[in-house]
Design goal:
By secondary structure, the protein is an alpha/beta fold. The protein contains 15 helices and 16 strands. The strands form four sheets. Strands 4-3-2-5-6-7 form a six-stranded parallel β-sheet.
Length: 436
Amino acid sequence: MAEKKMPEMFCYQCSQTASGTGCTIRGVCGKEPTEARLMDNLLLATKGMSAYLYHARELGYTDSDIDAFLERSFYATFTNVNFDAEDLLRLAIEAGEMNIRTMRLLKQAHIETFGEPEPTKVQTGIVKGHGIIATGHGFKALSELLKQSEGSGVNVYTHSELLPAHGYPGLKNHKHLIGNLGKAWFDQKQLFSKYPVAILGTSNCVLLPKDDYRDRMFTTGPARLPRVKHLDGYDYTEVIDRALSLPELEEDTGGVVLTTGFSKAKILSLKDKIKQLVEEGKIRHFFLVGGCDSPLKKAQYYREFTERLPRDTIIFTLACGKFRINDLDLGDIEGIPRLIDLGQCNDSIVAIDIVEALSELFGVGINELPLTIILSWMEQKAVAILWSLLSLGLKSIYLGPIIPGWVNDDILNVLVEDYDLKLIGDPEEDIRKILQ
């Protein structure tokens, strides 16, 4: 992997900072560049963990040990507190462990509140009538919106990370949860301009709105946008009324049908069949292809990679990175779908549980499984998930579309030497190396 060239550091958190603007080579306090970058990394990972914890708390689920770790983690990044790069690496691994605990808490909250997800086909076309598009990650907000709009004549569509909601019985039982529009988060300006509907942003992944839909967009929960009405609490009467004031959508039932909702329980119910197919040589390799999607041209890699995979491979996918590939018809292997959507980034714990279950099923360590993880990253939650995977000892992860900005040469060397982290390259060549 090529060396990464960039400024050494940038820190401006105290009055000692060089020239009063920022330390860029070495901290006036004595902090070395790698220590500063590990602090940046720790802040990114804990931010990602906080997002999962927020949504668990919305549903009444908390964990005092996670809260205590967040306090320790944030405090370690203060000026003149922690100058040990070794300890900051240990904290990064601990952040990964605690993120697993946080994701498991959120998954428990989702299942106990909305039921165990089940494989569900989701339409991507339009049904005639008034509409609301809900975007973000907020299942609590979506649930309240569905309850309040029941019988109103308004259809509700999900966008991006809310697609997996269609697999939860407690959400999909609302018949006016009609389908999913659009793909990953960055298509929303074009999408929201196209359809005369009300829009509810429930969490992160909202973009600054265009003027042509600003007056019909609302935010809730942690989301805020300039000159967009924010709704405190969970009363969405204004969203529903705004939807009813807009023209009805014309029917357009075209578009692909997506399948989502493969839970841990569903995959484990197939474990004997999977083991048989592996032993018979009909399944050669498993891939996890997913993560945060981004508008970078290099992100086209993930679709090209998946399209080139041999037909004796199984592909798990999750988070908005799945929108690069979830419209592909890859068929099945004797009834086992080749493309299996495990959910949103909040559902990454399902992938971890499946890896551990496969390890137990075949009686080998996780790094001995015929499994390769191909990750895309965009923001903080992806950093938290990467450290979660590293905390499990998983090696030879492929990462892209670029190396995270907080990684300098020292950190990159640790990730490569200790975890055999790889940067994505040419899809065909990467597949050849993995399957050789």
